[in-house]
């Protein structure tokens, strides 16, 4: 596995940042999906688009498959959504995670991971996870085994000011840092072992990276703030799934705002998160 590179992440971000919305900027949304597709192809993955219908129009998810040593153990899906809400360039939400997804594919392209990895560029996450819901249902209908799923959701914003980190009401803030300079891994009961394994792997791969985790009961239905990404359909489907996030609006004041720009991101932090996730994927423990 090659190390993650800040320059590559920045290049992806420059190509992606800008409103990518099905209503106000459909051409930019399609272009973002095409960019993901092109990079997956450049990495030598098996690549395809999957049409997704939404409000009478057709959009698409993009997939790249990297065959693992033990394909019989099921797919390990790693995904990030490439759409935005209207009125934001979406640098952190979610170009940061798409850039990480593409860089992870580059880091692993010459490896043989233990599990078959399905890299997923999801469309229409901002409209109740339309793209990931479509994939989850398709996998269930086709009886495709799923080993686990990782949703990459906003990975690049850091605030090292004291008391800059907030938490939902059901989280004891005394147990977590009060500065927004860590990455969070969120799982549910079914995915608890996967959550802990990912955290430990990221810490080992990037010792200077702060990594915290939270495990919620059931499918997270009582904890709506931690359901807000593409892992949610997989939780509801009974699969192991985790979200990797910089905690979004609990830290980032630019969430869904015009100010969510490339200049607001911490690229070395994004590089470290990318490298940590990539290291886990080589030989994941589920």
TrEMBL record:
GO BP term, pick one: proteolysis
Domain Peptidase M28 intervals: 61-280
One matching Pfam family: Peptidase_M28
InterPro entries from the UniProt entry: M28_fam, Peptidase_M28
GO MF entry, a single one: metalloexopeptidase activity
Recorded superkingdom: Bacteria
Protein name from the UniProt record: Peptidase M28
Taxonomy of the source species: Bacteria, Pseudomonadati, Nitrospinota/Tectimicrobiota group, Nitrospinota, Nitrospinia
